[in-house]
Amino acid sequence: MIEKALVGSRRYWGWVALLLVLMGIGFLFYLRQLSYGLGITGMSRDVSWGLYIAQFTFLVGVAASAVMLVLPYYLHNYKVFGRITILGEFLAVASVLMCLTFIIVDLGRPDRAFNVLLYPSPNSILFWDMIVLNGYLFLNILVGWTVLGAERKGVKPPKWVKPFIYISIPWAISIHTVTAFIYAGLPGRSFWLTAIMAPRFLSSAFASGPALLILACFILRKFTRFDPGREAIQTLAKIVTYAMAISIFFVLMELFTAFYSKVPEHVYHFKYLFVGLDGHTTLVPWWWAFMVLSVLSLILLFNPKTRNNDAILGVACAAVFISLWIEKGLGLVVTGFIPNPLDRVFEYSPTWPEVLITLGVWSMGFLVMTILYKVAVSVKEEGAGEAAH
Amino acid sequence: MMESSRRNFLKIAGLSVLGIGSGAVVGSRARGASKAFSPNPEALTAKRWAMVVDLRAGCPDGCKECIEVCHRIHNVPKIDNPKEEVKWIWTDFYEHAFPGMESRYTEEFVEEALQGSPVILLCNHCDNPPCVRVCPTKATFRRKDGIVMMDYHRCIGCRFCMAGCPFGARSLNWTDPRRYLKPEEVTPDYPTRTRGVVEKCNFCAERLAVGKIPACVEICRKVAEKAGTEPVLHFGDVEDADSEVREMIRAHHTIRRKSHLGTMPQVYYIL
Ligand code: SF4
Ligand code: SF4
Question: For residue A203, what pLDDT is reported?
């Protein structure tokens, strides 16, 4: 089927070329990072995780796109999602690939990455994260590819793939939970030490993944003959709406606990986000952008009039995606380190090489997504063409 | 020689952790290995190494000898950029060493009790170390005698341990540390590190193995002797009821950094 990705319009090849160029630039800077060390980034002794781990954390969420389609389609026989389930799975493949790449890019000694396998340490959450992420990647490639292959031949998917589909549902929950545990189990990092970390990850995942999927559907509808169907998009929009609402609700819960209890180590991280700490305010504009965008998206999503308008729905989904990128990315990861364990504020902002490497990894993800979508859509167009004859 | 016994030790440590589920086989292999490499008879051993920092003693004006000697003998690079700094032992003021324990009115007490000298900080060699718990490769591990150690050859530089340590005791080598070491100053007795690995205080495990106390404690004694004062740093086996550190902990009220977090720090402070 992969040959379908090798034929395409000029627009398709232009987009692929752009992604390849960005990947190339990122790769060159990564080579530089390899030879110079992580000192090329803005991270420090005090803020020891930055943009890379923030992307990883956020993208684990985006990978949830699959389960929000697979679950209604396979468990509740919600036929409307039949046409786009494959898109959710392929988006998950691209996201998880990006996640894994960001982890590798963040390592001080990537040449030793296999030590995680050579010296398995079940006490480390990172060990489990490696297992669940790779497992989820495998499941989505397997299921997506097999089901699409069957569709192409016009036959039913083979029976043996069913158990893998069912396993993929709780497995999706596990990737968010385990990733949340990376943060939620650390003594002394009070910003992360919260039992609702995993629920927060899940709720924002169920908003950001489907939001990107809706945007992808709009793009596909515009540039190809593939139509995801209006009802499918509207159902997805409702999923985004409620997941986003729950997500914001959880953030408000954190705010109450911090500001009403007034326990200093819970208060200062949020204070840093809202107004800055000791005159350090790098993340303040970002945090306010998150709040404005999230409220805006909720207004647009809850109001049926605006939600039913595709153009406005697109804006709302973009707002969801960007606001959660801020909240689950930089906001969550960087703020956890500020102030540092000695109650001192050292700020973080990424350097240009770091940004370009990040962009390179995103381009790689989008390239994978483009190729997979190209294959999927070509198969579907063929099917639709035959049906029309 | 030291290098090889260290490696071997790491192997045994690794095997014994792996061996939780398959005790018999691994156990016999570990025994075999220890026969082949007998420890130095001079080596200092303990059930539980610990340190007492007696802040009442006060450091003589501007004395930084402990920091200097530690960083010199362990080839710790001097990097001026605070973002990339590597430190094993350092100082900070009371309110940063013990955040949350200061009040508006303790300032005067701190001034008097500490005589203006800041608090000495280092890895606490926690009894329940989160850094060890989170490490995905066992590059950070806890020895039987309580020392929390690093294997620089195994560390992948994921920095999970830095997020896990609530005391800021760990440093990553953000760039090649050897760039900051003058060749003539490098101590051949201790390995230099590469970029991308984490490091921290090791309670001078390499010195204990040959019968010497930690370098910071040794120099502190010397300085105090010269100045005719009491040393600030004390080191010993807290499990030994007759040890000096145990005696000090018995006689005085001691505090530990962030003891409420349950990491069980083994550096005790007397104020
Ligand atoms: S002080 Fe930090 S590095 Fe040292 S043992 Fe405790 S948690 Fe680990
Ligand atoms: S940086 Fe090294 S020592 Fe620290 S957790 Fe990762 S592998 Fe372990």
Answer: 95
Range of the domain at A64: 1-7+50-184+359-384
Q: How far is B47 from chain A (nearest CA, A)?
A: 24
The ligand placed nearest to the CA atom of residue B148 is 1
Q: Do A312 and A367 reside in the same domain of the chain?
A: no
Interatomic CA distance for residues A310 and A329, integer angstroms = 27
Give the list of residues 6+ apart from residue A237 with CB closer than 8 angstroms, or none: A214, A301, A307, A313, A316, A317
For chain A, the domain total comes to: 2
- Assigned domain for A275 exists: yes
Q: Looking at the structure, tell me whether residues A321 and A299 fall in a common domain.
A: yes
| Tokens describing residue B73 | 């003998």
By C-alpha distance, the chain A residue nearest B168 is A341
Instruction: Determine, yes or no, domain membership for A319.
Output: yes
State mean pLDDT over B133-151. Answer: 96
> What is the pTM for the complete model shown?
0.91
- Residues in chain A with CB shorter than 8 Å from the CB of B96 are 342-344
State residue A384's pLDDT score: 66
Query: Which atom number of ligand 1 is nearest to the Cα of residue B201?
Result: 4
Kindly give the distance from the C-alpha atom of residue B231 to the centroid of ligand 1, in angstroms, as a whole number.
Answer: 24
- In this structure, are A113 and A256 located in the same domain? no
For the record, the structure tokens of B46 come out as: 């303990």
Based on the fold, state whether residues A370 and A346 are members of the same structural domain: no
Residue nearest to atom 7 of ligand 1 (CA): B165
Chain A and chain B share a number of CB contacts under 8 A equal to 149
The Cα–Cα gap between A256 and A70 comes to 35
Residues A172 and A246 in one domain: no
- Burial letters for A183-203: b for 16+ Cβ neighbours within 10 Å, e otherwise? bbbbbbbbbbbbebbbbbbbb
CB B125 within 8 A of CB A373: no
Q: Do B261 and A125 touch (CB under 8 A)?
A: no
| pLDDT at residue A119, rounded to an integer | 94
Find, in chain A, the residue whose alpha carbon is nearest to that of B159: A48
- CB distance A110–B156 less than 8 Å? yes
Please tell me whether residues A175 and A266 are part of one structural domain: no
**Which of B261, B195, B271 has its CA nearest to residue B232?**
B271
pLDDT in tens, A227-264: 888 999 999 999 999 999 999 999 999 999 999 999 99
One domain, residues A234 and A371:
no
**Contact residues of ligand 1, CB 6 A cut-off:** B 123-126, 129-131, 148, 165, 167, 169-170, 200, 263
CA-closest candidate to residue B190, choices B205, B179, B211: B205
Of A119, A130, A336, the CB nearest to B138: A119
Q: Give the distance (Å) from ligand 2 centre to CA of residue B182.
A: 27
Task: Report if residue A328 sits inside a domain.
Answer: yes
Query: What digits encode the pLDDT tens for the residues A191-237?
Result: 999 999 999 999 999 999 999 999 999 999 998 888 888 999 999 99
The pLDDT of residue B20 is above 60: no
Decide if A187 and B194 are in contact by the 8 Å CB cutoff: no
CA–CA separation, A272 vs B47, rounded Å?
43
Residues A287 and A169 in one domain: no
> Which of B156, B172, B194 should be mutated for ligand 2, with most atoms under 8 A from CB?
B156
Q: Which residues of A touch B198 (CB under 8 A)?
A: 108
Measure CA of the first residue to CA of the last residue in chain B; give whole Å: 42
Written as six digits, the tokens of B50 are 């610990």
CB atoms within 10 A of CB B22: 10
- Residue A218 maps to a domain: no
pLDDT (tens digit per residue) in A374-383 = 999 888 887 7
Mutate to test the interface with B, among A190, A342, A348 (most CBs of B within 10 A): A342
